[in-house]
């Protein structure tokens, strides 16, 4: 049994908004990575751990690979591409469709340079025309020598066991890297910040979310254990954005806070007193110093 125990690191890659975080959350059975319908939801490399009798898979959820428009975008692409170099296998998520654009071509070139075994996962099949799925698989088969091509719905949990089976076939024999109870290396403060950002992403219009960050200024459990006090800042780039985030008579900020508190309480398994403020830091996504302050430090990627 021990001789056949598999372990290794697997990168989840793909263009923005293809469902990488949703897939990872479903595979490990717990919400760690935030999700929304907005592109570039994931900004940092997020590590989670799946452990079973067959082995241990350490998933690295990466930001979507895209054409960067600012320093934050460059950071996100670097995070994704540097992750690929350090793993044993790659899961490349795509959406159904026969057309392969410049974004997919670029990802294929990145993969060729790294030389890692790759499993293609065609996601969101619950929304696709089933008759056209073989055509999609054929188009990708011509693009890259995948070890396997799978079709799943991460949102519906369809065929996800096939993903795990494929990875166990690829990973080397090896020991556990983490305790069986470990599901992520993310600090609780960071997960809390991301949960707040998720609620803002889901509540606000299309323009503002790309320009927001969340910082946790205080996170402290009260001595009697009855409550955890959290104070957080939502950072935006424009005064006009600040007004939208706060909303009429504070309604939008209250909505974001209420929804985030519910998820954080679930994570901490206890009551939370959450206070939010909105601060303006103009063009922070092009400032190395501010990006570092908000948790996007290039040194962490080296």
Automatic annotation (TrEMBL):
State the residue spans of region: G4.
123-126
**Key word Hydrolase present:** no
Membrane topology type: Peripheral membrane protein
User: Where is the protein found, in the record's own terms?
Assistant: Cytoplasm; Cell membrane
What GO molecular function terms would the record report?
A: GTP binding; GTPase activity; ribosomal small subunit binding; small ribosomal subunit rRNA binding
Q: Which UniProt keywords apply?
A: Cell membrane, Cytoplasm, GTP-binding, Membrane, Nucleotide-binding, Ribosome biogenesis, RNA-binding, rRNA-binding
The record's section on PROSITE patterns has: G_ERA (PS51713), KH_TYPE_2 (PS50823)
Main localization (coarse): cytoplasm
Q: What residue spans carry the region label G1?
A: 14-21
**G3: where is this region?**
61-64
- Entry keyword annotation includes Cell membrane: yes
Q: Tell me which GO cellular component terms the UniProt record holds.
A: cytosol; plasma membrane
Top-rank taxon of the source lineage equals Bacteria
The record's listing under SUPFAM superfamilies reads:
P-loop containing nucleoside triphosphate hydrolases, Prokaryotic type KH domain (KH-domain type II)
Provide a GO biological process annotation. Answer: ribosomal small subunit assembly
Q: Assembly and interactions?
A: Monomer.
Family named by the database record: Belongs to the TRAFAC class TrmE-Era-EngA-EngB-Septin-like GTPase superfamily. Era GTPase family.
Identification of the protein by name: GTPase Era
Its source organism is Candidatus Scatomonas pullistercoris
- According to the entry, what is the taxonomic lineage of the organism? Bacteria, Bacillati, Bacillota, Clostridia, Lachnospirales
Q: Gene name, please?
A: era
């Amino acid at each position: 049994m021990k001789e056949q125990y598999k372990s290794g690191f697997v990168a989840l890659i793909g263009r923005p908004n293809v469902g990488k975080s949703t897939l990872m959350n479903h595979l490990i059975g717990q919400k760690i990575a935030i999700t929304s319908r907005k592109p570039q939801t994931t900004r940092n490399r997020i590590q989670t751990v799946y452990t079973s009798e067959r082995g241990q898979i350490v998933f690295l959820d990466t930001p979507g690979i895209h054409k960067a428009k600012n320093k934050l975008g460059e950071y996100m692409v670097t995070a994704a591409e540097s992750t690929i170099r350090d793993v044993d296998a790659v899961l490349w998520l795509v959406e159904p469709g026969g057309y392969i654009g410049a974004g997919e071509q670029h990802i294929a070139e990145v993969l060729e340079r790294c030389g890692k075994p790759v499993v293609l996962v065609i996601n969101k099949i619950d929304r696709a025309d089933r008759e056209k799925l073989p055509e999609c698989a054929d188009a990708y088969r011509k693009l890259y020598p995948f070890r396997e091509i799978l079709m799943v719905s991460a949102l519906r949990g369809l065929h996800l066991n096939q993903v795990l089976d494929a990875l166990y076939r690829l990973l080397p024999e090896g020991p556990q890297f983490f305790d069986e109870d470990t599901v992520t290396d993310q600090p609780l403060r960071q997960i809390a910040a991301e949960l707040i950002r998720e609620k803002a992403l889901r509540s606000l219009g299309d323009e503002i979310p790309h320009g927001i960050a969340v910082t946790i200024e205080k996170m402290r459990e009260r001595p009697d254990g009855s409550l955890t006090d959290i104070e957080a800042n939502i950072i935006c780039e424009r005064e006009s954005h600040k007004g939208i985030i706060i909303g009429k008579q504070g309604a939008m900020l209250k909505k974001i806070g209420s929804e985030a508190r519910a998820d954080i309480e679930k994570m901490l398994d206890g009551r939370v007193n959450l206070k939010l403020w909105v601060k303006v830091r103009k063009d922070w996504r092009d400032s190395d110093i501010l990006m570092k302050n908000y948790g996007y430090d290039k040194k962490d990627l080296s």
